[in-house]
Amino acid sequence: MDTPHRFPVHVYYEDTDLAGIVYYANYLRFIERARTEWVRDLGIDQGRLKDEQGIVFAVRRVEADYLRPARFDEDLTVETRLVSSGGARVVLTQDVTREGAVLFSSVVTLVALSDGGRPARLPADLRARLG
Predict the structure, then answer these.
(1) GO molecular-function annotation terms (predicted)?
(2) Which residue in 2, 17, 45, 75 is the catalytic one?
């Protein structure tokens, strides 16, 4: 995916520490929201996927680099790009930016799991939507 999916995030007081800087764990919340919207924008209904095929996505691995702080009341953007997808795995990069400057950079590996918690092959139509 050359053009990233973009998701806006506004930094609220609750997102920050006493110094007014975004608490490090909240970046994971920001990228989680962005992934949910990325999947939705691809036309994938995660609730339906679970109900009809018993498949859910789970985070298997996150590599994260905290490069610059974000602060209270700033507007940020989460940029999500597909790196690769396989039978049961999806790898993404997700960057949190402010006016084009990267503040947080991550590589996220997702896996598809069955109701029993075992790896599950992604349906062909879903793999096609991922690209």
Answers:
(1) fatty acyl-CoA hydrolase activity
(2) 17
